Amino acid sequence: MAKYIFVTGGVTSSLGKGIISASLAKLLQARGLKVTIQKFDPYINVDPGTLNPYEHGECYVTEDGAETDLDLGHYERFLNIFTSQANNVTTGKIYQTVINKEREGAYLGKTVQVIPHITDEIKRRMKLLGNEGYDIVITEIGGTVGDIESLPFIEAVRQLQWELEEEDCLVVHLTLVPYLKAAKELKTKPTQHSVKMMSENGVHPDIIVCRCERPLSIELRKKIALFCNVKTEAVIEAQDAASIYEVPLIMMREKLDVICLKKLNLTQYHEPELSKWKEFLDKLKYPKSKVNIGLIGKYIELQDAYKSILEAFVHAGAINECKVDVINIHSEFITESNVEEKLSNLDGLLVAPGFGHRGIEGKILAVKYARENKLPFFGICLGMQMSVIEFGRNVLNLQAHSTEMDPQCQDAVIDLMEEQKKVTAKGGTMRLGSYPCEIQAGSLAEAIYGSRSISERHRHRWEFNNKYLKQYEEAGMVASGVNPESKLVEIVELKNHPFFIGVQYHPELKSTVENPHPLFVHFVKAARDNADRHSAVKNPLLQSEMI
Ligand code: GLN
After folding, report:
1. Ligand 1 in contact with 404 (CB < 6 A)?
2. pLDDT confidence of 83, banded at 50, 70, 90?
3. Is the CB–ligand 1 distance for residue 459 below 6 Å?
4. Mean pLDDT, the chain, integer
5. Does residue 381 carry a catalytic annotation?
6. Share of the chain above pLDDT 70, in %
7. To which H or E segment does residue 171 belong?
8. Distance from residue 482's CA to the centre of ligand 1 (Å)
């Protein structure tokens, strides 16, 4: 039977509950336990698929096509496992299930209420993955303790604590211990208040993880322990780290995993096996080279909008022992007259996924620059579609566009997928999740993947219009990856270019610390080769040495 760890947050949002949960899970996994993590979000949207990135950052897609919270990306990247529909539950999903059941008459005339019906459904979902053979299920409760909308989730945890054996569950509370400059002190009062508030709701934390900017002295740990009714050893310091990937080691030093195992009465485990993880961190910390990669998108000011892409660059950079500096370039402000100035110092260019009209002409100009100047290019989803439009316009002399932006365009080289034409509802209706792709022999894609058949995750409605395929291939843009059944084009690449590849899917979603995605790995390599070539041209001495 699985044991349950609940992770709650206090004082403020954005404390990094996802990273703490993933780090704890990593340590337990490294000790030989089978662990998964799930996230319960208190908002009423059924899933974050309909939320724009300004609201919620990136929408992370699982193998089975769930549109989920970006924390699931952290879980997969840390644990190197797949998550699924079951790993992300929202208030919207809970109510939808309960209301559907009510309409079916399943409650037999009873009044349907938050307690017990909503909390029963929350508990059912909290325990769902517990039947899948995991030793430990970690449940991260979104939001902050004290929010009205979090209450049913906290109440469900309270009830579960009574239903489960004492040694089968525990609560970790992540809180903020702010440093007050004027007082030159860390302050524990907000933590005391948030624990008090949680206790009023009937849930008492077993472990308190304190996010802080300065070291947490033993005196302060004792003070928090005294006021919050936990053991001193259960007060954990979580100082700001240079990289999220250092947090598991920081938590190991603080013995977060050991304290959990003790409370859960788990004795069958070994010392954490983290050699691969440490090797990765070493490479990350001591790079031997550096590249500048331009990220062309329209949500550039938002850290979280391209989360998985940025993390995939961290993984790919480390394995190449190369620091990847991602230069954010707003596609809306790229014009014909400034494109050279904005892009000429780059070693590689990634055109980001996206929806809608805003900023796409800038993306097309950026693709043109990369194609003409032999700059390594990587287009993802909308980025791939923009590379197709650019090639259509500037090489094939078509009036090329996508019907997403211009439904009346003359050459709809990117068109709505057939099965999308009758779809009107927005939520969960895109082409989502994992689909197979067959790769052409001798292509760049084959060299990158080292395989002729792959599968990757999708989130889109438009596609390459196969009516134009022959024309494109004859002119040098080939479809090197195609879905074996539907024949949808999944990968395009240019023949006469050192590295130019566009993919209809989202490779960034499958990059993990232990398995960096080959497309990112090779793209960074191509960018580094490009940088080397440039410095050789600038420095003829180096050039002769290279020859
Ligand atoms: N808007 C495009 C489509 O729906 C691309 C989507 C994306 O980049 N995720 O096909």
Report:
1. yes
2. very high
3. yes
4. 95
5. yes
6. 98
7. strand 169-176
8. 17
**Separation in Å, CA 377 to CA 292, 361, 367, 446:** 13, 17, 7, 17
SS3 content of the chain, % helix, strand, coil (to 5): 45, 20, 35
pLDDT given for residue 544 in this prediction: 47
Tokens read off for 344: 């000429």
β-strand partners of 432: 459
- 254, 390, 508, 517: the catalytic one is 508
Pocket test for ligand 1, best of 306, 404, 405 (most atoms within 8 A of CB): 404
Per the listing, tokens 């940025």 go with: 310
pLDDT recorded at residue 113: 97
Listed as own residue / partner, the contacts of 81-84 with beta carbons closer than 8 Å and 24 or more positions apart are 81/36, 83/36, 83/37, 83/38
What's 57's DSSP letter?
S
CA atoms of 64 and 359, how far apart (whole Å): 31
**Model confidence, pTM:** 0.94
Neighbours of 164 (CB within 10 A): 16
Model pLDDT for residues 112-153, shown as the tens digit of each residue = 999 999 999 999 999 999 999 999 999 999 999 999 999 999
Average pLDDT over residues 425-452: 96
CA atoms of 363 and 294, how far apart (whole Å): 11
* Alpha-carbon span 498 to 448, nearest angstrom: 13
Tokens coding 184: 């030159």
Count CA within 13 A, CB hemisphere, residue 440: 16
Chain centre to alpha carbon of residue 464: 26
pLDDT, one tens digit per residue, over 55-71 is: 888 999 999 999 999 99
